[in-house]
Amino acid sequence: MRFSMKPLMMACAVSAITFSQANANEPVVVASKIDTEGSVLGELVIQTLERNGIPTENRLQLGATSIVRSALLAGEIDLYPEYTGNGAFFYDMTDSPVWNDADKAHETVKELDAEQGLIWLEPASANNTWAMSIREDVAKEHDLVSLEDLADYLDEGGEFKFAASAEFVESAQALPAFQQAYGFDLSDDQLLVLSGGNTAATMRAAAQQTSGVNAAMTYGTDGGLTALGLVVLEDSKGVQPVYQPAPVVREEVLEAYPEIEPLLNEVFSSLDLVTLQTLNADVAVSGLSPSQVASDYLDTLDQ
Q1: Which residue, of 68, 141, 205, 235, has the fewest CB within 10 Å?
Q2: C-alpha distances in angstroms, 142 versus 163, 205, 258?
């Protein structure tokens, strides 16, 4: 979704002056976006802080990106997990290539947000961006790990049928970009175009082999991937913008609780792609609460 935060940031900068300096006696107000992954990441943040004696106030599942971002800028919340690639929208930089490189994306949004009094901590290595995923049995049989492997497989005449939304098939930034970068071209017979952009439907088509489908449009950390036996093919050329989750905290709060940084860096550095997929699946597929999933995971880190 395209949106510009510049007018909002100016207004919020003024309103933030009314907030008193944070101190170590006040709870850290932690929020998240209103989705499964947001709730899991938010619980990991809250429980990590609470386990280490830092009081928190739970404002998880606060809303969509614009709502949570606005609340942070206004000082209404103190910390929430955001995605590096969204810096492109916050600063009207969607045409910049920096967002396709993990390190550059994090460094760019970190520098820009520091001017707003917002500190980005270390991101997870997991990348929640548009992806092409394939059935695990096909990937294993043909040793398919990356989109370069897929291009070779297709060139050799390998069986492949891909379920995707019309947007993914038609958008210059999606399938056409993948095809151009990796040198393959899917025919109409190799595509099953589904209405809407719901990855649950495309993943289900691949899992059930609907109309011969064995691959699907997904997001990198979709919770259903592992449960449905699908694996993400690595975008080794960085075609898509990188969306790595990282905690973003108000500077004055981090000054009051400097231990937040090493504590959350340790947790988020452990969240690789498969780990975050699994945690999301525990909620979205297995029906566990985000609180329980986070608690169980932190217990494993403490062992």
Answers
A1: 141
A2: 20, 21, 49
